[in-house]
Amino acid sequence: MGQVGRRGFLRGVGAAAVGAPLLGAGTANAGIDLDVDLDLDLDLDLGLPRLPSPHRWLVGDHHIHTQYSNDAMYTVDQVVAGARRHGADWLVFSDHGHVAHEANSVEPAHADIVAARRRHPGLLLWQGLEWNMPAAEHATVFLPPSRDEAALLREFERTFDSRLTNTGASTPANEAKALEALRWLEKRGGLVVVNHPSRNGRIAPAELRNWHDAAPNVVIGMEGAPGAQCDGHPKPGGSGGHRGGYGNSPGADSWPGFPPETYRTFGGFDWVTATLGGLWDSLLAEGRSWWITSNSDSHFNFRDTIIRQPEPGDLYDRVGKHLDPLPGGPAQTQPPYCDFYPGEFSRTVVGATERSYRGVMDGLRAGRTFVTHGGLAQQLEVHAFANDRLSWPVGLGGRLRVRRGTDITVVVLARLAARPHTGGEVPKLARLDLIRGTITGRSTNRQSVHAPETTVARSYEPRFRPGQVVAFKHTFRDVRDSFYVRVRGTDGNRHTPGGLEPIQDIPGAANPWQDLWCYTNPLFVEVR
Known about the structure:
Residues 229-259 are annotated as: Disordered. It comes from Crossiella cryophila. The chain has two domains: 6-53 and 378-527, Sandwich (Immunoglobulin-like); 57-348, TIM Barrel. The chain is built from twelve helices and 20 strands. The protein has helices at 6-13, 15-18, 76-85, 99-119, 149-160, 162-165, 172-187, 205-214, 271-274, 279-284, 315-319, 357-366, and strands at 56-64, 90-93, 124-132, 138-142, 191-194, 219-225, 265-266, 269-270, 291-294, 346-352, 369-373, 377-386, 399-402, 408-416, 431-438, 455-460, 469-476, 483-490, 517-520, 523-527. It is globular and about 70 Å long.
């Protein structure tokens, strides 16, 4: 399958699908005059109908810590400044649930965020919480901004955070407490994203299903890749940790059915996401709208020259805030955690119908998202349409309903990187994989972690030209059963020998810039 230049791309697909500038600019997809000669070669006419794409593609991060977290240091303004440097459009501040946080931090942090909203009207800023979930581990919680947002957040933390309510153990009563919290959030329009799901093995597959069954419009999915992506980078002297902080082993509350590799990352992504036909695919095979995200989990950022001031060891526990850190220090190559700024390495890119808080939350809830590391793909879209032209085309997160026997064409569009990332190189997308899984319906095994019918339907290797738009299509003939498709991409540096799959990251020798992947959320084809 050849590469397609923009001229042919526009001729076949329509300007709306590819007219947006590089991500991070936060502008709407622009119409383009189809008669303009863009001086790019046409190798393939996709022959597609005009695809709807009325979205602003907005870069963001839902998992960020500040000086109001017990284990972080940055001011709200310092985080915002770093995020703006790296093209972010929206941020959720998710300081840790903690006794000192609930008692002292919620209102002061809210005041800082409101002030930052005034100073940076182009950014969408939420005050959220990294929730210690009863009977589980961590999740990002956030609500639509309102006059009562701080009071509601504080009420939620006081009532449902396991650190404050002593509900952390894996018991039926504590599991019920988590479901009660989800119902509370559902009444108030909140969203929950499960953070680093496999890091400690504490979140059993049945719990994910229970949460989603209880509140599918609240619990929208999980981190496909954790933050702390630089944690496994080789440090001076040869030391180094585990990429994403995934260096743990089973504990007393871990689900015993997880294999040992669950506790490690693969190409920087969680085992749940990276395993073809694994737990994520088992949820999608049930037809669940279960989406993935990526984020920084920023606490202390690699090579940063902002450093923490010395302070009394009990300061945070007394006042719920660390002293403002100071710029001008030496570059931090071995910080306590090894994170990046929002947008610097990990990006969750949302297709929003409008540049607003509601637009981003609706886009996240609908699954109109893709995630990318190191700028590997600047734009990544997937569309599907029925060749009988009786159904309107759908994109990421969508559901295409067709008659049995119809031919279904899927088109994958990617805009390649145009500039170096902060690791110093222009990332090169070496391969895109179109992954197909059969929708088999709700499983009777609530702990299922396998979807054996998941396969790579097609792989495509584009020729690399910085900033170029590339595309390929694949047609599924005479479809008889419902299925979903999703896409992943790689720089091709590390995968199974002779195969396509990502491989486990090496502790202390996992340079994140040398093993880049991107993933889309799925779209579903439902056969009547």
